[in-house]
Amino acid sequence: MPFTTELTRRFGLRHPVLSAPMGAVAGGRLAAAVSRAGGLGLLGPGYHDADWVDAEFAAAAGERVGIGFITWDLERTPARLDAALAHRPAAVMLSFGDARRFVPPIRRAGAALVLQVQTLAAARRAAELEPDLIVAQGTEAGGHGSSRALFPLLPAVVDAVAPIPVLAAGGIADGRGLVAALALGACGALIGTRFYAAEEAIGSDAVKRRLVERGGDDTVRTAIFDIVRKLPWPEPYTGRAVANEFSAHWHDHEAELRRALPEESARYAAAVTNGDLDTTVLWGGEALDLVHDVQPAERILLRIMREAEATRRRLAAPDIS
To answer: Domains of the chain (ranges plus CATH)?
Structure first.
């Protein structure tokens, strides 16, 4: 029995799942695989330029995909949005900043507008822009976010922005989490960390092995990886990453890290070149406990949906205890 929601109806999907636009991880192969399997895949350029956008849309050729941008960074390099819209994406997702200036071109291009929020106040502001979807993101999510947990935030956002449909993001990696989000009023889920451990995701075998080996208790929400990379992330956003030697040394010592930037930034850059995971950032969410293997994205999505159906049947069964 299919899961039919406002998301599947509006976008013509078989499954109420979007893959998150993880920066420099969600390329064309991953987005295309998720869309081919019945969800909607989103490209994640992160800080990459228009050439990356063009190349990854080419890699997804033949599949209907969308794209997501870091809003405050897009303000610095708006040409990337023009490049994306030229490929007629199914949706454009904006997160972490004031989206107002980008709404008209997205509308003119015929793409659905998706706005991600982390607080109830931000959800109300987003609703004023009349997006097609609002994503309520909890602090459980890997990568950048804020400080509110998903399950208290989600129903509050659903109530506040109705009738705009709401997606749930943060800590969802299996069918149980999807059903729980639907029960709280979401029309689907935006899933990141689980798809990072997909064969099609951009990332080395060593990166994906570490995602499988670590759990939610091994993550930390911190600003240090942005500080060392000299990325001007505004407050209140921090990032959830897999803890490593660098975070063990510098987390909660941000002022000292800023004083040591000349040396530490150079050391960090060398670590990136060498693929040193004990130093470089590996974004991952609390749902890592549920990531047990690296598989093709299609298999991941179909397993999530089988788990969701099994959960729905279990909840619907009469209590015979």
So the answer is: 6-202+293-316 (3.20.20.70), 205-274 (no CATH)
Beta 17-19 vs 238-242: how paired, if at all?
unpaired
Identify the H or E element spanning 314. helix 297-316
Give the Cβ contact number of residue 266 at 10 Å.
11
- What size, in residues, is the chain? 321
For position 283, what pLDDT does the model report? 98
CA gap 217, 226 in Å, rounded:
21
Mean pLDDT of the chain: 97
- For the beta carbon of residue 198, count every other beta carbon within 10 angstroms: 24
What is the separation of C-alpha 136 from the centre of its chain, rounded to a whole number of angstroms?
11
**C-alpha to C-alpha distance for 265 and 256, rounded to whole angstroms:** 13
Closest CA to 13 of 196, 200, 190, 195: 190
Of 179, 176, 248, 186, which Cα lies nearest the Cα of 219?
248
Let me know if 229 is exposed, middle or buried by CB neighbors in 10 A (0-12, 13-18, 19+): middle
pTM summary value? 0.95
End-to-end CA, the chain? 26
Q: For residue 299, with 0-12 CB atoms within 10 Å meaning exposed, 13-18 middle and 19 or more buried, which class applies? A: middle
Banded model confidence at residue 2, pLDDT cuts 50, 70, 90: confident
pLDDT tens digits for range 246-287:
999 999 999 999 999 999 999 999 999 999 999 999 999 999
